[in-house]
Hints:
This protein has 216 residues and is an all-alpha fold. Helices cover 61% and strands 0% of the residues.
Amino acid sequence: MPKSTQAGVSRRRFMAVGGGSAALAAFLAACGDDSGTTTTTSSMPAKSSGQTSETEQFGEGDIGILNYALTLEYLETAFYADVVKSGLFKGKDLAVIKKFGEEEAEHVDALTAAVKQLGGKPAPEPKAEFPLEDAKSVTELAATVENLGAAAYLGQAANIESPEVLASALAIHSVEGRHAAVLNTVLGKSITPDGAFAKPADAMTVLKSVEPFIVG
Length: 216
């Protein structure tokens, strides 16, 4: 199947997956309601009456959450593109980086299509700059970005209203987690830094973490 056709199918599936998602959201929320600490993210408190998801700046409801995720995917895509151009990696390492970047770009396409399908306006792409000094520090930053990305999706699971959007967001979350596992392994770190249950990160924590990279 040609790559363009595959991308089209992926975008259609993004809004078509469903079934059992409400129960899954409840399970994920319960797992995230752990008072313990984690080395990679902060736990998201249980959602109470009147509490917001902190994504309203990107739009209302699921559109805001999707645009929040889209903003993070813009940054990840830009990061990998800059790493490829930096010349710090060669051979198989460069191939992996390119693959990760291509998958993040597919996430951007899928999220953009999802926002439009819900009648929303996709968030604008921010201008970003990343410190690309040497291969080791860049790999460490990549691991941080991917672990944060996985936690960000998990952090919004209980806030998503549409079962289809939830299931599709978790499909992206899974890929972010696999990217993180690869990079954690390269760095000699645990592929499950939070143990048996991954810890979610709330939007405020995530946005504060990526703020230094946004320059416009």
